[in-house]
């Protein structure tokens, strides 16, 4: 629901009366949150993104390595790497902590990114939909616009995140990585892969939001407001994530290639041709399983936590 639907006498929005008839001033933090609903949405989105980002980082790492490893000699065998073999190799070579390689840029990107996404979404809803339930097309449009804004702003962090996860670049820190990329590759290096990133994230978010809202509408209202609210939101999120991940997987593969090999490809079309010539159609879907697991579980958890925090903060 939207800010306009918040009850008029919500305790967060009004001053309380003392027993003597005087007025107890609303705590500054509550008054601030009440006056700035976009801040509420940003905080709820950021908190929801933090836990899911940390928890599912290994899946993102395995996905990046899988997309960048067409055929590798490992453990005495030569052939296409599987998700399990990459996972095992990381643990053997880099130990358990290696599964969380790239954690800093992931959090730096995902936490404010999710916060920006949810606050943009709340702004669009409150200003253009006036409290009504969005249609499927409106959901796609809202998700597309909200994710495009956050994706474009945070593309330099996305580049660093991908390179950290690949294990190909020996950066000391995220700041040094950004400085090195800007110094050696310029603005083009800082924004490489922007087009496929937007083709991946914006449609994913739009499709995800459409599937999520449409699935929720199939659930009886009495169940939505029951003690089973969180499991229901989580299930709707998983369903939406699976469907949206499959559609946007090719763009994720192209994004990874462009960000890892900025000098090898002149543009999006050259990456498309390269993947097709070297791997065929199946090449566009490399890493789909770990990405599907991560994006689905992460999005489902983020929305579940967001829904609960929104109620606590007075957004619903």
UniProtKB/TrEMBL annotation:
Solcar repeats lie at residues 36-127, 134-218, 228-312. GO terms for cellular component: mitochondrial inner membrane. PROSITE patterns: SOLCAR. Pfam families: Mito_carr (PF00153). It catalyses: glycine(in) = glycine(out). It is found in: Membrane; Mitochondrion inner membrane. GO terms for biological process: glycine import into mitochondrion. The keyword Transport applies. The keyword Transmembrane helix applies. Gene3D superfamilies: Mitochondrial carrier domain. It is a multi-pass membrane protein. Mitochondrial glycine transporter that imports glycine into the mitochondrial matrix. Plays an important role in providing glycine for the first enzymatic step in heme biosynthesis, the condensation of glycine with succinyl-CoA to produce 5-aminolevulinate (ALA) in the miochondrial matrix. This is Mitochondrial glycine transporter. The gene is 109538943.
């Amino acid at each position: 629901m939207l800010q306009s639907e918040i009850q008029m006498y919500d305790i967060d929005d009004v001053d309380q009366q003392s027993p003597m008839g005087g007025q107890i001033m609303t705590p500054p933090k509550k008054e601030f949150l009440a006056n700035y609903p976009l801040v509420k949405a940003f905080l709820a989105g950021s908190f929801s993104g933090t836990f899911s980002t940390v928890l599912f980082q290994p899946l993102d790492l395995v996905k990046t390595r899988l997309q960048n490893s067409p055929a590798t000699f490992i453990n005495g065998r030569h052939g296409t790497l599987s998700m399990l073999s990459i996972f095992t190799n990381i643990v053997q070579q880099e130990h358990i902590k290696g599964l969380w390689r790239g954690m800093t840029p992931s959090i730096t990107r995902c936490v404010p990114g999710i916060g920006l996404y949810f606050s943009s979404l709340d702004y669009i809803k409150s200003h253009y939909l006036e409290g009504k339930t969005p249609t499927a097309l409106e959901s796609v449009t809202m998700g597309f616009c909200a994710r495009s804004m956050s994706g474009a702003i945070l593309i330099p962090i996305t580049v660093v995140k991908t390179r950290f996860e690949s294990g190909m670049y020996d950066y000391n820190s995220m700041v040094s990585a950004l400085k090195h990329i800007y110094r050696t590759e310029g603005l083009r290096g800082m924004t490489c892969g922007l087009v496929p990133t937007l083709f991946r994230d914006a449609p994913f978010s739009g499709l995800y939001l459409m599937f999520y809202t449409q699935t929720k509408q199939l659930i009886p209202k009495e169940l939505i407001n029951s003690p089973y609210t969180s499991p229901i939101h989580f299930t709707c999120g998983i369903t939406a994530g699976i469907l949206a991940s499959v559609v946007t997987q090719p763009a994720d593969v192209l994004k990874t290639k462009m960000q890892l090999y900025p000098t090898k490809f002149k543009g999006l079309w050259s990456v498309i041709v390269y993947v097709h010539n070297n791997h065929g159609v199946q090449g566009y879907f490399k890493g789909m399983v770990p990405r599907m697991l991560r994006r689905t579980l992460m999005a489902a958890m983020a929305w579940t936590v967001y829904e609960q925090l929104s109620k606590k903060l007075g957004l619903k």
